[in-house]
Amino acid sequence: MPVLLASESAPTLYELLVLLKKQSGLDWTLAEPDAQTQAQQLKICGIGSLGQAGPSELSFLSNPKLRDQLHHTQAAAVFVQADDLAAMQQPAQFIAVVCDSPYFAYALVAQWFEQHRLQRLPQGIHPTAVIHPSAVIADGVHIGPYAVLEAQAQIGPGCRIDAGCYVGKAVQIGADTHLYPRAVLYRDTVVGARCIIHSGVVLGADGFGFAPHPDQSGQWVKIAQLGNVQIGNDVEIGANTTIDRGALDATIVHDGVKLDNQIMVGHNVSIGAHTAVAACVGIAGSTHIGARCIIGGAAMISGHLSIADDVQISGGTAITSSINQSSRYTGVYPYQQHKQWQRNAAVISQLSTLRKRVRDLERTLADQSVNTEK
Amino acid sequence: MPVLLASESAPTLYELLVLLKKQSGLDWTLAEPDAQTQAQQLKICGIGSLGQAGPSELSFLSNPKLRDQLHHTQAAAVFVQADDLAAMQQPAQFIAVVCDSPYFAYALVAQWFEQHRLQRLPQGIHPTAVIHPSAVIADGVHIGPYAVLEAQAQIGPGCRIDAGCYVGKAVQIGADTHLYPRAVLYRDTVVGARCIIHSGVVLGADGFGFAPHPDQSGQWVKIAQLGNVQIGNDVEIGANTTIDRGALDATIVHDGVKLDNQIMVGHNVSIGAHTAVAACVGIAGSTHIGARCIIGGAAMISGHLSIADDVQISGGTAITSSINQSSRYTGVYPYQQHKQWQRNAAVISQLSTLRKRVRDLERTLADQSVNTEK
Amino acid sequence: MPVLLASESAPTLYELLVLLKKQSGLDWTLAEPDAQTQAQQLKICGIGSLGQAGPSELSFLSNPKLRDQLHHTQAAAVFVQADDLAAMQQPAQFIAVVCDSPYFAYALVAQWFEQHRLQRLPQGIHPTAVIHPSAVIADGVHIGPYAVLEAQAQIGPGCRIDAGCYVGKAVQIGADTHLYPRAVLYRDTVVGARCIIHSGVVLGADGFGFAPHPDQSGQWVKIAQLGNVQIGNDVEIGANTTIDRGALDATIVHDGVKLDNQIMVGHNVSIGAHTAVAACVGIAGSTHIGARCIIGGAAMISGHLSIADDVQISGGTAITSSINQSSRYTGVYPYQQHKQWQRNAAVISQLSTLRKRVRDLERTLADQSVNTEK
Q: What is the CATH number of domain C183-329?
């Protein structure tokens, strides 16, 4: 992995731990009584998995199945749950930082390194950015080369608009939102605060709306898409994901939603708060998805449906009717070696016939039984 | 939704209706004898669904199931079919504009607002556009900041080439076509008139063609892709859709085709006129799709197939052989709660065995029956 | 197809054949003893299929099913296997160039035309490119308009970085690699030599990593993605494909891998050498795919799996568990006319019940048989 920090600018383990407790409420203790002195001297230059972390790096054990790796890790310090540490069969060769959720601790440390990196990025508005005079740019905004901001765009404080982004007319972006290079926001799009929008994302392109021409020529008459896209706070949108503008109203993505790459969100969809959607999912128009759902990769969700809160959908599943009950839903054809699949697929085409044959057999046997009883 | 028009620049209902009759042949009548005077005074500032339209907006009823909403809508005027209006149980509180196809009327009104918006966009060639001296730009063309047009590109009258578009060498674009920001057209691409090409679209990238190296090392030898992409008139291509150039000949999209977002069209494919393809569909190389087909979202179509005219393919369906007959085709594994799915999926793996068991039972019963008859 | 070469700059057939033997070891003979003189006079202006090639073009027969086309082709010369030529029922009207693999010969000729085109493209660094002073650009590099290269980027000799590309901080690119317009490489990405990266590709965007917040509010805590993307030599990446950076380590694509358009490669994935992946495939995080695999379009591969070398996966198949054995695997629901599908899909939901009914019948018959024997 890339080097994160040179030793001279790295924090000590103790500084880092104190900061995480203060900023994020992370509760931790050092397993060994004398570890505090060590922690005050140890510089933390990066973070890695147990197998990969080096002697100036921090690591973590979040999956009990990997307990054995504690014996061999080169990491200088490890976030670990008390029982995993207690199960070790030899003394730890690292500083053990005991906490309830090592995975959460890892997330906080990784964020710390990322913030450190972001703070060192170039700041200011590049002279090549084309910004309409009526656009309103708050303080502390970075705008990269060749970005284009149209009339009446509003950019909140602390935003980063990277190279080549396109921010359409009357787009509003909240504070501290980051647009990676070449993101495109069509006119009227609204984005909240602290969002992360990756390269190739397109927000607010026309929804797919056409009326058949009454002359029955087969021609389609375009339904101009007059609504917009509204994104809440703390939303992340992965590379090349597209969210279409509403036909008349808005397409809405609520606070805290996380969208992976190459997702397609149709017009007039709404996605409830904190729902997470993995890559390559398609959500067709006017479907409403509840809060805290988890949708697996490449799932396909038809239009005009309603999905309840806290629903889980397995990857690759096609959802074709509304779901009212929180549960996990799956519909994936099981794969097999090709020849075996061919045999089974052939039966599928005649399944309803097969069921009828079973019914007939049942009746015949029942009749025999009646005859026997006579 | 965004405000469409301020009252002072809005047309009256009557002006709008007269225009739609003249321009598009829309046949309408006002239900009430005295409504013409009202229609001449009523300013129409926007259009909305029955539930959302406000008192200066137009609406429409296209789905008879929503008839009840006629009683509560705030809309100033509503396009409605005669029988839906007649079925109302109380006098309409809006100006009823009776027509045969309210959905078509809605499409025309929405288009009117969109045209009004487009006409007010900035015009002209931005000084930062990089245009090769041999490119031929017709009159009335808009070219946005940082667009790049290579040698021998030809742009028809009235086109809009938005910010950051890339138009490759010898690309030809017909009149009044609109490229949204950051569309990319590789060399030799031909696009007709009145097309709409959204952001992130890539036309003419290399098709996926490789020959196994005869040295059997596993290496692939690239087949350079020497053909091009040809798009007809009145085609719309959604955000981040990709259409690859032909290997030797052309990949062809005929007139009036509508492609949604994130569609992949392989090399040497042809798509017949007025076919509509929903998002996330993949069409593999050398497949020919007929005219007026409707292909649902996330359908997958294998290569080297032929699909007849007027075929409908349900969303999520994998088409693996040619279709000669116009009909609707579906192949989607039905989803269920995960545990139930697991039970059924396990049976699928042994379906051909199950069929054999049924056959054996049938034979055994037949034998019994023969024995009994003896 | 576009005109490839004017006659005055075209090579003779003989020049081309001698070159291909010298450069690529292509073994060929002319079928007719007197053909060499003809081959020394014939100018080759392009290459086409047997049905499309014109009288100054070369063609090839690679599929024996198309043998009949040899009798009607207008091509001036044809690459053909000896037995296909021998099977002709009339004398060839073209110069027959006999070789073992006409498809390989076609690939070499197409590459020759492509190289000829590439060598005539504009060269040099466009004055509008924004290049950080610490970036290192080797000799013979082309950088197009509005490209942006950040600090410490390293570009190998002979690379083409087309218009509007974004090359992030500390990105390294090997010799002779070609980035088509608007490709985006996030910081720290490493790309080998002779790669082709098409428009809309995004390498190194954040992987999809979140920890549930321990406060159980449903909020997700971002796992900052600190790894990178590493691409080997001779890799091709199709339009709008995305490859995410690793969480802590690298996402790795090995030498000779060919990725089609709109593929999604999750964080920490590795793809073995010479594996080919067709369009629209999704590969979820931390999955390892072997060498020389062939993965069909729109296949979906779950995360944390291991796929052996030389595995073939059919298009549209969802792979949900590791594969240890080289073979072809398929899992696609067979499509049918919609009504027939509805009937069969309904049975699927009760398949485990159906199996139980068969078992019961078997037992009943077995009991009868026991009773009869008594």
A: 2.160.10.10
